[in-house]
């Protein structure tokens, strides 16, 4: 069995700008460089035959290259924050690609994604983080914005759970036109 997801990789300069934000929130498990990406579709556990079908379906996707910018800092969880993230500025092109991926994996029999797609990069997972410290972090970094960067491919990753968090390995990149 393999645990798979589809994502956009970040250039080193953008990842470094995100790593520089880390700190100041007790209970935060900050993402390492290797774990910073924009998830387009979490697939989950599949066997080898399904992995081949997913690869074949993703290889049929045709979409244009585009430019992407990250902007703003937010949290998921409200009164009990569970994650910190940065968003995508003008995410229509990302959403267009995500819809194509969603359609391709549904055509081969995967169930539809239940959650609404919100393009973002997870910065940290939170466990028991004081709300006031999360608010302070959000306020301090509210104006975060990356420079624009080119997206020339999307990637199928495998994920292996470990005591120190998931380990991600790119399995295949699919070029955009």
Question: Topology, pairings included?
Answer:
Blueprint: E1 2-9, H1 12-19, E2 28-30, E3 37-46, H2 48-59, E4 66-76, E5 83-89, H3 92-107, E6 120-126, H4 131-140, E7 149-151, E8 153-160, E9 167-175
Antiparallel strand pairs: 1-3, 1-8, 2-6, 4-5, 4-7, 5-6, 8-9
Percentage of β-strand residues: 35-45%
Query: Whole-number average pLDDT?
Result: 96
Question: What low-confidence regions span 5 or more consecutive residues with pLDDT below 50?
Answer: none
Tell me the series of helices and strands, N- to C-terminal. Answer: EHEEHEEHEHEEE
**What is the CATH third-level topology name?**
Cyclic Phosphodiesterase, Chain: A
- Most strands sheet: 5 strands, antiparallel
Q: What is the approximate shape?
A: globular
Helix-strand category:
alpha+beta
The span between the termini is 31 Å
Q: What do we call the CATH homologous superfamily? A: Cyclic phosphodiesterase
CATH architecture level-2 label:
Alpha-Beta Complex
**Would you count the extended β strands for me?**
9
Compute the number of helices.
4
Helix content: 25-40%
Query: How many separate structural domains?
Result: 1
Radius of gyration over C-alpha positions, nearest whole angstrom: 16 Å
- The top level CATH class name: Alpha Beta
- The largest beta-sheet arranges its strands as 2-6-5-4-7
